[in-house]
Structures are given as structure tokens and as C-alpha cells.
Amino acid sequence: MAPRSSPAHCEVRVAHQQAPVVPNTKGLPALPIELLLEIVSYFPSVPIPTSIFFHCSQLCLERIEVLQALSQMCRSLRSVFLPLMWQRIEVGVTSYIYSDDMRRPGYLPWKKDVATELVRQLEIVTIRDPTLAAYVKIVSVVLTDYCSKAVFREFVRCLALFPNLHTMQILGAGGSLGRDLTAAFAGRTFPTVRTLIVQSFASAILKACPHVKSVTSASGPNPLMFYDIARYCPDVEELRGFSHIEDESQFQGNFFQTMRKHFPKTRVIVLYGPKILSNRTRQELAQFPALQRIEIVVHSYEWKPPIKTFLKQAEEVLRDLDALFEKLPSNLHTWRIPENSTEAEEKIWRDLHEVFRDAVLVMLFRPKRQMMQDMLGDSVDSTTLFVMRDVSVSTSSDKFPSESALASCSARASENPVGDIVDMLMQVLEGLALIHSNNVAHRDAFRDNFVVQWHPESLRPMKISPSRPRVYLIDFEVAIDFPPECPADECVCTGYPIGRSFGDLEAYTRPHAPELGNHTVSSN
Question: Which of 29, 127, 243, 517 could make an SS bond with 76 (beta carbons 3.0 to 4.6 A apart)?
Fold first, then answer.
């Protein structure tokens, strides 16, 4: 028989159960989220990209175990570390595989361990707790030929349940992977994937990711894979894994011409140092209209004078990247926030007028202006895009990645408050330019919908340099997503952004734009 509690003990227990739940304001949960994430960032994860099946061994396992433990400590820490824990599906590291005793009998069936771990993680985020699927943004897995048909079908089924998936790194070991992958990915499409790291057997994966921007060949410069990318992924801007162009004869000496033909949007080119022909390579690179970065793969024993010469020529090819930065005042590092006077503010903007004018010309796509016909309606029949406020302190930059030359120069703008403001305004324009280029009109791009998450570089409490301010555009509640086939001059919104939270004009509480007050309308 259970012992009886005294009335006093019962009262204490009841009072404890009825006590209000308050946030934990002491210890680890009281630290700022940025500091918690900084601590966790010192635990390495599987590198992306990589061609090594089992990378970092126990170090990667430590990160997973730490995140799992922290997410189970308390409610406040769970809200931070649970999304971070399931942000990545990583399969290829298990304590069973990484035993130091490589000769033990259990070492051989490592393929079974990898397949079992993959199915276990997929089951957690799709069956046991489907709400976790929204956290998954990166999938880095090793596929094997162990029960490949069943495992691949389940793998592809779960990929379709990840709405925010943007990066896939799929490596493999086994002879029948290509055939089984083709069957599993048949008829599937993953439009959110922007970064892909695969091997030569992954033609079916390339076909399933038509909007990918960056593709890395983990098998080296395979010509067949090159043409598969050209056939299925027309929007590629970054091609990696083809730097060792030792078999250039397969392209009949026209590799760069072929690349320009199939990938006109190329922003990043990776070259192998010893294969660089200085003058010819420079001439070829100068013909890429969107080129922003040149990476050279070279070993210390291969460092030769021709490569040094090419570096100078490459600087000339990329000279436009720094053109905007060079227009900033040379003494910008001495500027401070102006006094509360119109004259002081106007002086700053007069000095920076040329910079912002050129930034708008370079980045900002502006649809054609129209006179307002209907203050409460849209001139184009389109679908309203509902996007929840999702400001993640670690990966929100994936929402609007940098796409222009400003990405290279804004990080060096200055080390003071005025420079921080310049940097933030450039990012604002860059974000608007990106959504406009994708036929999306925000319609509510006012001050409160630009969120800044930063440690300003002008504030240096430590010797470690803080990060630049980072600006995120949020709240797509009343945004308009124009069809891809809609011409640019017809992607125009008119009137106030009425809808959802603002049912009518009387409920609209945002600052009124001057052009609407004058009965005219422009793009957002």
C-alpha cells in the first residue's frame, strides 16, 4: 500500500502543480539566442560540398548529440535548438561505423547501418512528428545498395514533405544506385532546391530539380553529367567539380563556349591552376556577362608565374565588382550619425546619392508605372502568396540570397554607424530586386517589414570582429505572385495592399505612400 501523505505535503504538492508557468530567466536559457547559436556553431557538421562519404566522424556526432540534449532541457531551449537540430538530415555518420576497431566482425555491414539511420530520421520528421518536416532545409546523406529500392522510395517520398528544403547533398556507394534512383525519382519535382551536390549516377536527381542554382559534381569533371545539367537545370549559376579540365578534348577545345551557351547566368567559375592558359582564359572569362567570382584550385607545389599573371588579368575581368564600392567616400570610416538637423542629413545623402542611384540602376527591377484605376483591386488576375513571418537567426539569408555585385562590396563598406545604414539600405534594394526578378510584388514593403538581425561592426566590445548587419524582408501576407509567363511590363500592382489583415481601406494602418495620396500608383 502506498504511503499516505500528510495534509501539509498535499497542500505543497497542489500549490506546486497550480503555480503559474514562467520563463526561465536564469542560467543557460537566459543567454541571447545569438550567443547560444554562436556556441553551437563550434560543433562541426558535414561539410557542403564534399565528396568524402564519412566526414568528421565523431565530431559530427557530437553536434547531433549536443543539439538533442539541449532541445530536451527545457521549453525555452527547445524552441531554439529543436529547429536547429532538424534543420539538417545528415546520414553517413554513426557511432557504430566509427569504431576504432576496424577489424571487428560488425564493421562490414556498414551499409545496413547507414540505410537504417536514414529511415529512422525520415520516420521521425514525417510520421512521429510531422511538424518537424518544416524545419528541414538541408539533406546530406549517403545512399547504399542495401535494400535500395525500398529505401530510395521512402527517401523520395519524404523529400516531397519538406517545404523549405533548399540544399541536397547525395553521395552513394554501390553498383545499382543509378537504376534504382531513376525509378524512385521518376515523375518527381522539387522546385525549392537551389543547391545540389551529387555524383555522376544522379541524372534522375538533376531532372527532378529544375530550378537549382548551384551544382557540384562529386565525381569530378564528367562530360555526361555536364550535359545532363545543361539539359535539366537551365538556371544554374554556379558549377563546381569541373575545375580539372584535363579532358578538354571531349569539348573539342570549346569548353568555355559550351558553358556560355548552356549556362549564360554563370556567376561563379572554378578553374584548375595548372590548366590555365593566361591570355586565352582571360578572353573567355571576359565574355561571361554575369560573372562575379573566379576561384582557382591550386596546390602549393603548383604555384607558378603564369598563375600569378592570370590573377592580375582576373582582377581586370572582375573590376566591375568593386566599381560601386569605390564610389563610396574614402573617409566613410570617420562618419557618424548626424545631428538632428535637416542640413546634416541632406549632406550625407548628397554625398551618397550617386552610390544609391547606381545601386538602383544595377539591382532594382521596376515594373512600368500606371495611373491608379481601382484603389482596392489588382490589375492582374494572379494568386495571392501567403508566407508566414519566418525570421530565423541562423538561416534567414536563404530566403533572399545575395545575387548582385553588392554582395562582394557591401561587407567592406565601413566600420561605423553611417556605413551600417548604407549597407542595410543596399540590402533592402537587393531584396526587392530579387523578388521582382521572380515576378513577386511584396505590396507592403514598409519600414516594419524589414527586420535587422546584427551585431553592428561599429560596436566592438570584443577583439573578434562582429558580423555585418543583415536585413530580412518579411510578411508576404498580401504579396502577389505573378505567373512566370507574365511579361515584365504587366507585373504591376495598383492601390493599397488590401487583404488578409486589412479587410478594407479604413482598417489600413500603414503609412500612406505619397503617390497614393496623389491618386497615382507605382510598384512596391
Answer: 29
Q: Which residues contact 335 (CB under 8 A, 6 or more apart)?
A: 329, 348, 414, 416, 417, 418, 419
**66: which 3 cell numbers?**
549536443
Q: Do 375 and 495 meet the contact criterion of CB atoms below 8 Å apart?
A: yes
Check residue 253 and give left, alpha or beta (phi > 0: left; psi -120 to 50: alpha): left
**CA-closest candidate to residue 181, choices 209, 223, 162, 214:** 209
* CA-only gyration radius of the chain, Å: 27
Q: CA 449, 453, 454: angle at the middle one, nearest 5?
A: 145
- For 373-437, the DSSP string reads S-TTS-SS--EEE-------TTTGGGTS---STHHHHGGGS-SSHHHHHHHHHHHHHHHHHHHHH
Half-sphere exposure in the Cβ direction for 122 (13 Å, CA): 21
**pLDDT tens-digit profile of 333-364?**
566 655 556 666 666 666 666 665 554 433 33
Instruction: Give the other-Cβ count within 10 Å of 373's Cβ.
Output: 10
pLDDT number for residue 201: 81
Type of residue found at 101: D
* Whole-angstrom distance, CA of residue 390 vs CA of residue 329: 36
What is the pTM for the complete model shown? Answer: 0.58
The alpha carbon of residue 132 and the mean position of all alpha carbons in its chain are separated, in whole angstroms, by 19
Beta strands in 174-273 (DSSP E): 195-198, 214-217, 238-240, 268-272
Q: pLDDT tens digit string along 239-277?
A: 887 766 544 555 556 777 888 888 888 888 877 666 666
287 SS3 class = coil
Q: Which domains does the chain have, with CATH numbers?
A: 29-242 (3.80.10), 331-521 (no CATH)
| CA distance linking residue 120 with residue 114, whole number of Å | 10
CB 481, CB 382: distance < 8 Å: yes
Separation in Å, CA 34 to CA 38, 40, 72, 80, 482:
6, 10, 19, 10, 36
Q: Find, among 192, 179, 124, the residue nearest to 152 by Cα.
A: 179
> Grid coordinates standing for 45?
557538421
Residues 141/169, Cβ–Cβ less than 8 Å: yes
Which of helix, strand or coil describes residue 461?
A: coil
φ/ψ (deg, to 5) at 415: -130, 45
